[in-house]
Amino acid sequence: MLTLPAYPPSPGALRPPLPDGPRGRAGGRATGSGAQKRRAARTRGSAHAVGLEEIARRLGARGIPAEVISGAEAAGRWPGMRFEDTVLHSPDAGVARAAAALRELERRVVAAGGEVRWHTPVRAIEPDSDGVDVVTDAGTHRADVAIVTVGAWTEKLLGGAGLGLPPLRVTEETPAHFTPRMPTTPTEAFVLERVGPVVVGAGFSGQGFKFAPGVGATLADLVLDIDASAAEPFRLPRG
Ligand SMILES: Cc1cc2nc3c(=O)[nH]c(=O)nc-3n(C[C@H](O)[C@H](O)[C@H](O)COP(=O)(O)OP(=O)(O)OC[C@H]3O[C@@H](n4cnc5c(N)ncnc54)[C@H](O)[C@@H]3O)c2cc1C
């Protein structure tokens, strides 16, 4: 678990704290919507590819309090919890309430003039030199650019579009009564890329929800600015 600030001091605080951060504007704050719950987060050292010191440094650079303490000190502070290695403590972190966050994001799409069509699967994405056809059972929609964020179904929908996506290994987990699917890239880096008239957000490797506002801002930049690109770890290899 990484930390999502409950009350970010600036809009930029919701950008993903990854190397350089993906390019893009802040995605806006969902506070006040009940989408986040303030709660300190404690993150174990072995859970992350980059060290906790580095994560604490990046949080600090964004004005988010964080400290790295030993497992023994953490056990003393929070009796009843056992820590096997170092701990990153971020007192301002929070937990995203998934259902409320999704309702808030949909509300904002509609408020901005967008339209949400439930129960309308896209059967095909067909890019050409002028734009893209989005094919559904209810008709084909022509667009200048299509953003495709279909999670574990990305290869199924875009596999034939020749975008050069990395292989997405889909793992399954069965927490309680349901089985969610988790698409994972070989490096676990997200794919945030534009290829012609198709913008892809995929391969979130079990880490995508908390970064949704920053990812959305980056994907919007890729749509609006033909010269934009995400930070290097999130791009597809150029041939
Ligand atoms: C067990 C589990 C725990 C997780 N815990 C966390 C966590 O603590 N923090 C965190 O940040 N992330 C977590 N994640 C990861 C997070 O849920 C994902 O990274 C995130 O949901 C990815 O968002 P997405 O929109 O790309 O894909 P999804 O959420 O998978 O959404 C894709 C959507 O596309 C739709 N779709 C598919 N095909 C089509 C089509 N042809 N036409 C139209 N629609 C289509 C699907 O129905 C689906 O609604 C967890 C994931 C799992 C499985």
Describe the protein.
21% of the residues lie in helices and 24% in strands. It has 239 residues and is α+β, with helices and mostly antiparallel strands. A hairpin with a 2-residue loop joins β8 and β9. It has helices spanning 52-61, 71-77, 98-111, 154-158, 212-224; strands at residues 4-5, 36-38, 41-44, 67-69, 87-90, 93-96, 122-127, 132-136, 139-143, 146-148, 169-172, 181-184, 191-195, 198-202. The longest helix is centred in the middle third of the chain and has 14 residues, at 98-111. It has five helices and 14 strands. The two termini are 35 Å apart. The radius of gyration is 19 Å and the shape is elongated. It has two domains: 4-99, no CATH class; 120-234, 3-Layer(bba) Sandwich (FAD/NAD(P)-binding domain). Residues 1-32 have low confidence and may be disordered. A three-stranded antiparallel sheet has the order 1-6-2. It has a three-stranded antiparallel sheet with strand order 3-5-4. The structure holds flavin-adenine dinucleotide (FAD). Flavin-adenine dinucleotide binds at residues 1, 121-122, 149-153, 157, 173, 175, 180, 182, 201, 204, 206-210.
List keywords for this structure.
239 residues, alpha+beta, FAD/NAD(P)-binding domain, 2 domains, 3-stranded antiparallel β-sheet, 21% helix, 24% strand, elongated
Give a brief description:
By secondary structure, the chain is of the alpha+beta class. Helix content is 21%, strand content 24%. Strands 1-6-2 form a 3-stranded antiparallel sheet. Strands 3-5-4 form a 3-stranded antiparallel sheet. A 3-stranded antiparallel sheet has the order 7-8-9, with no helix packed on it.
